[in-house]
Amino acid sequence: MTATYPLTQNGVRVAHLYDSLEVSRLEAFVARHPQGTPFHRPAWFMSVAQATGNEAHGLVQTRQGEITAFLPFDAIHSPVFGRVLASSGFAVGGGLLAAEGVDPKEMFVAAEELARRLSCPTIELRGGLLPQAQGGWALKSESHCNFARPLAADDEAELLAIPRKQRAEVRKALANDLTVEVGTGERDRAAHYEVFCESYRNLGTPVFPRALLDSVVDAFGKDADILTVRHESKPVASVISLYHGGAVMPYWGGGTWEARRLRANDRMYYELMLHARRRGCATFDFGRSKTGSGAYHFKRNWGFEPEPLTYATWTRPGAAKREADPTSSKLSLQIKVWQRLPLSVANRLGPLIARGIG
Predict the structure, then answer these.
(1) pLDDT at residue 321 above 70?
(2) Buried b (16+ CB within 10 A) or exposed e, 263-288
(3) What positions does the domain BioF2-like acetyltransferase occupy (predicted)?
């Protein structure tokens, strides 16, 4: 969709994502906005759309030629989960960014109009400024929490910042015969995807296509890298991390069954903390987890305090609510079946399904 006409009376319009100058202006707006995240960047939502066969869109509001509000979207289609306009797709963040003093109401009105034009019965805003719970909008609080804390001043201080029980696990990991590599080359990508596929199958989740991961690493350039832990030259744990605003976010990661015995995941996250500090980062953003889940407790064990998140969804009048929660009773049986699939089968089918989960 490339229409230039406004979607509201006050001039909210569709972003010109085919215009490199507009994209550069949007990147700059996100970079200087205090609530900007990696998932607001065109480098994210345009890359994931292209890699998954979905569509990237954006809404902007301007004043005297300057961008004052921005809302990125991926329009995602799935034969299983239906169509959704997500901000942002395949992300745990996104939503509306607005300059101080800007009334966000017109942006939400424009989002509804865009969803109608794209035949998307659902909008999901994963952060940012949120609308009031009315007119088809609903707010969901505390189903997920985010975890972030400052990085320590040096390696030893970082180790001591980890609570005692988890610190003991990290020390055991440091004593194991493990090696650590960081890069973005083919060796790094292939190792990561090998681990990633097994990890997702074990969780009962369809794995994303490798093209999605590659496209993000390529688009982020120096703002992304891959840290891999190996045992006897074989990758056992690996994570793709994003860097934004002085923070590191380990995003797509996982470990093999062997990683648990070797405590390779513990080594991976500790090494990433050290690596990020050496890169100049001040914050470790462990990302979101579902409240009360295993990942939620894992992050608390590392000394991170949960920060409840609030998301917003809009459902077109008369449309059914979208159901894509992996913890729902509707999907729990499917997850159990997926966990039992041979890895080769899961790797073939997973990307076909995952490109529509969003």
Answers:
(1) yes
(2) bbbbbbbbbbbbbbbeeebeebbbbb
(3) 167-300
Q: In the block, which residue shows the tokens 């909210």?
A: 12
Q: What percent of the chain has pLDDT over 70?
A: 87
Strand ranges in 42-136 using DSSP code E only, listed in sequence order = 55-63, 66-78, 82-87, 97-98, 122-125
Domains of the chain, CATH where assigned: 13-142+310-354 (3.40.630), 146-307 (3.40.630.30)
Query: What confidence tens digit (pLDDT) does each residue in 53-68 have?
Result: 999 999 999 988 899 9
Per-residue pLDDT at 235 exceeds 90: yes
In sequence order, what DSSP letters do the residues of 174-197 get, joined into one string?
A: HHSS-EEEEE-SHHHHHHHHHHHH
The whole-angstrom separation of Cα 99 and Cα 263 is: 44
Q: How many angstroms separate the CA atoms of 349 and 346, rounded?
A: 5
With 0-12 CB in 10 A as exposed, 13-18 as middle and 19+ as buried, what is 211? middle
The residues facing 285 across adjacent strands are: 148
What's the rounded Cα separation, in Å, for the pair 311 and 309?
7
- Phi and psi at residue 252, to the nearest 5°: -100, 100
pLDDT of residue 82: 82
Q: What pLDDT, in 10s, does the model give residues 187-203?
A: 999 999 999 999 988 87
Instruction: Tell me the backbone φ, ψ of residue 169, rounded to 5 degrees.
Output: -65, -40
Q: To the nearest 10°, the Cα dihedral for 22, 24, 26, 29?
A: -130
End-to-end CA distance of the chain: 19
pLDDT tens per residue, range 10-56: 679 999 999 999 999 999 999 999 999 999 999 999 999 999 999 99
Instruction: From 322, 261, 242, select the one nearest 48 (Cα to Cα).
Output: 242
